[in-house]
Design a protein that fits this description.
Helices cover 30% and strands 25% of the residues. It has 7 helices and 17 strands. Strands 8, 9, 12, 15, 16 and 17 form a 6-stranded antiparallel beta sheet that branches. Strands 1-2-3-7-6 form a 5-stranded antiparallel beta sheet. A two-stranded antiparallel ribbon has the order 4-5. Strand 4 and strand 5 form a beta hairpin. Helix 1 packs parallel to helix 7, helix 3 crosses helix 4 and helix 6 packs antiparallel against helix 7. 38% of the residues are buried. It binds ligand Q0Z. Ligand Q0Z binds next to strand 2, strand 3 and strand 7.
């Protein structure tokens, strides 16, 4: 599916992300003037700042439907989201991108990523090992890779210019960037969504280690959960079974994301140098299939259903 090059009837291409595309209503379309956008998730996969080829078949559908499932769970708990429609057909979502798209409210996006960490790993672990803190917040001694934190931490970051990495910022810097009142509302909302999602995921045998949310403001100034949520592209999911053993052994948790791809890329088998100038080689078919199965596994465990592919 060449989603990336698709010209979509009724929609005009607006912007490309690494793995997603965004469209605005075309002049004369039924949505014109309605302040909506069409978000399309492609099958592209990125790792180590490169978009890889080939893509992972159905990845965009699996992640979109996972995101929509979460929006539904969270809406039942009073969390408002940006989804307007997933209807497919003339005047709605084009068949070509069915199952991987949503029509969303165009919001005034908050210029910060709302990251919540419930478990210690990744860049948080690196900082903890260096200084006993995570984004400046002091933590108890003796924590390991994968340890559950005493309480979830809100660790905001600012969206970097395209190509740059996001930058962790302190809460006081966030207050300077978006204002004190909005910063508090953002933190409270992100912690609330994380707590709900972490509990839901744990009941399905998945640990939600950390996650990144994006929020926007509607015309009334209400804070709305936007973008894609609680997928392996925006979060770390670990199998709950075996978590404790990995923490005890100090070994990395297996994850439901593109870890297969990262491991292969950095193995001698790929022949690729992460710090060099060359693009990574094409992914072997077995790595593509194993990665696809991980995404499907996460979807099935969480939702108890099959995605529509
Ligand atoms: C999200 C992005 C993507 C490229 C803009 N509800 C919204 N209102 C206004 N803006 C956005 C949203 Cl979700 C918005 N992005 C990130 C998504 C492709 C960039 F699908 N940019």
């Amino acid at each position: 599916m060449s989603v990336e090059t698709a010209s979509l009837e009724g929609w005009q291409h607006l912007a490309s992300g690494k793995v997603r595309e965004i469209y605005t209503p075309a002049p004369g379309s039924s949505w014109e003037g309605q302040d909506v956008l069409l978000m399309v998730a492609t099958d592209r996969i990125s790792a180590y700042d490169h978009v890889l080829s080939p893509g992972i078949p159905d990845k965009g559908k699996i992640l979109t439907q996972m995101s929509l499932w979460w929006f539904e769970q969270l809406a039942a708990a009073g969390i408002n989201n940006h989804v307007v429609s997933t209807e497919v057909g003339p005047g709605a979502i084009p068949e070509a991108v069915a199952g991987r798209s949503m029509i969303v409210r165009k919001l005034k996006m908050v210029e910060a990523e709302a990251i919540v960490r419930g478990y210690l790993t990744g860049s948080g672990l690196a900082e903890y090992r260096a200084s006993g803190t995570v984004t400046g917040i002091a933590l108890p001694e003796g924590l390991s890779d994968g340890s559950r934190l005493p309480e979830p931490l809100f660790t905001p970051s600012t969206k970097a210019e395209q190509g740059d990495h996001d930058e962790n910022i302190s809460f006081s810097r966030l207050e300077e960037v978006i204002g004190g009142e909005l910063a508090q509302r953002l933190r409270d909302a992100a912690l609330k969504v994380y707590a709900l999602a972490e509990e839901t995921a744990r009941a399905a045998g998945i640990i939600l280690a950390d996650t990144k949310f994006e929020f926007g403001l509607d015309e009334h100034g209400a804070l709305i959960l936007a973008d894609e949520v609680l997928t392996p592209d925006s979060s770390r999911f670990w199998p709950a079974a075996g978590w404790e053993q990995h923490v005890q052994a100090g070994t990395a948790q297996p994850s439901f994301d593109k870890q297969f791809v990262r491991n292969w890329l950095t193995s001698s088998e790929s022949g690729w140098e992460r710090d060099g100038d060359l693009a990574p080689p094409a992914l072997p078919a077995d790595i593509v299939q194993a990665t696809r199965e991980r995404y499907l596994d996460a979807f099935r465990r969480l939702t108890g259903t099959e995605p529509a592919l």
